[in-house]
Design a protein that fits this description.
Elements (H helix, E strand, L loop, with lengths): L3 H8 L3 H16 L5 E2 L11 H13 L2 H5 L8 H15 L8 E4 L2 H12 L5 E5 L5 H7 L4 E5 L10 H4 L7 E7 L11 H18 L4 E5 L22 E6 L12 E4 L7 H14 L7 H10 L7 H16 L12 E5 L5 H9 L3 E2 L1 E2 L8 E5 L4 H19 L6
Parallel strand pairs: 1-10, 3-4, 3-5, 5-6, 6-7
Antiparallel strand pairs: 2-8, 7-8, 9-12, 11-12
Helix pairs in contact: 3-11, 5-11, 6-10, 12-14
The chain binds pyridoxal-5'-phosphate (PLP).
Length: 400
Amino acid sequence: MYNAQAYALGANRSCIRELFEYGCRQAAVVGRENVYDFSLGNPSIPAPPEVNQAVRDVLEQMDSLQLHGYTTAAGDLETRRAIAEDLNTRFDAGVSPQELFLVSGAAPALVSVLRALAAPEGELLTVAPYFPEYSVFAQENGLRFRAVPPDLPAFQIRPEAVEPMLNVHTQAVLINSPNNPSGAVYTRQTLQALAALLKRKSAQVGHPIYLIADEPYRELVYGEAEVPFVPTIYPNTIVCYSYSKSLSLPGERIGYVYVPAQAADSQALYAAIAGAARMCGHVCAPSLWQKVIARCASLRPDLAAYDRNRRALLEGLTACGYTVAPPDGAFYLFVKAPGGDAEAFSQAAKKKNLLVVPGDGFGCPGYFRLCYCVSYEQIQRSLPVFREVREKFCAGEGNL
Ligand code: PLP
């Protein structure tokens, strides 16, 4: 016998994975250069050279037993010190190493935090569009999952839309900025308005409503856009961070949870997160990568390649008649589906080997997502295909 819910999750691939694997199969048939795969958010810029150098350094310089041994569950103090110092330099945030808990990426960070907050009848509220795994993480860890409808076309957060969805069972509101899939960055004004609402509602319901800031894309921001450090706006914030995207290390599994001392019940909350991580089999974050982050916590990615892709795609798609959400961060464009049915559009595009992910799974039908962590050449080659698919689709030739 096995758990039916676990089986369902394991047996059914996500729509994104389906598309990606379809693209791999098609590449073998029509050639890699004739498949325009915008499905998967796998970084396409290499990790900064300093990261690889740090790996070599720790391998050469450190005692092997120490390098590969278990660390404390919360992680090496040296690493947490380096992260705290970086956050304090950038945001003047007063972070201390004891408030950080190192984990294997943002996904386990979120699972630990949600599990720690799961109370009987507890609810998690997020804002559409959202990372589809949120619903799995919440529901499988004891929280009812609810989503505020998207704020179109700005993709910010309207407190008027959030307020009616908050109630005495709301344990936390989960936000993600820069956002997957919209690429929007929540402005300081948006975050301040949300903070004011949560403060007022927490007082009304008689317990803190935490804000969970899921921030794997914090460093991926373009132009003048600012990514405020949420705990400096709302003290009851828990940050889930990862180096998967910022240092292009998604397979290495390293990140952290930050529970600010000024958050309500911060010490108990930190202990509950550590306990929840333990329930999920966490022992410690990968030791070698802890040592690398201790040396690389202040590194920032060189975003020139992503920015070039972002501009090329934005300009090219707009010129073909597409409407695109304001793409200030991450490496996604969220595009209005011609005709309004993103599933139908995605199916039609697939026939031309153009792979785009419908927004339905992100809680935002009517849009599709493009990951522009691809080669610049793919973007150039794909633009005529985007034009053709749109024209034929709008002319009612759905069956391309
Ligand atoms: N949160 C969001 C919004 C993401 O897009 C992702 C990965 O794509 C994650 C969390 C998980 O990131 P990690 O690889 O650090 O577990």
